[in-house]
Write a structure and sequence with these properties.
By secondary structure, the protein is α+β, with helices and mostly antiparallel strands. It contains three helices and four strands.
Length: 83
C-alpha cells in the first residue's frame, strides 16, 4: 500500500517507489535487488540505473507475463516486504 508509482505512459513498465519498504526492512537500495532475487526469484531493474533520482525505485515490466504470473509476482513482493 505504501509503494507509489505513476501509470505508464505508452510503456510496458512501472517505476515504483519502494523506499519506505526498504527503510522498514533496513535495506540499502543497492542490496535490495540482489536480496529480492535470492529470496523470491524476482528480477527488477534498480531505479538508480536511470539516474540518481531513481534511488529507492524499482523498474518493473509486465509486458511478457500472464495475469497469473503478475499476481504471483505481487504476492512474492508482498511476502518479501512482510505485508
Amino acid at each position: 500500500p505504501e509503494a507509489r508509482f505513476r501509470a505508464p505512459e505508452g510503456g510496458f513498465y512501472f517505476f515504483v517507489d519502494v523506499s519506505s519498504y526498504l527503510k522498514a526492512r533496513g535495506l540499502h537500495p543497492d542490496d535490495f535487488y540482489l536480496k529480492l532475487f535470492e529470496d523470491e526469484r524476482i528480477v527488477v531493474i534498480p531505479g538508480v540505473f536511470f539516474g540518481n533520482q531513481g534511488s529507492g525505485f524499482a523498474r518493473m515490466t509486465f509486458v511478457t507475463e500472464t495475469e497469473e504470473r503478475i499476481a504471483e509476482g505481487v504476492e512474492r513482493l508482498a511476502r518479501f516486504f512482510g505485508a
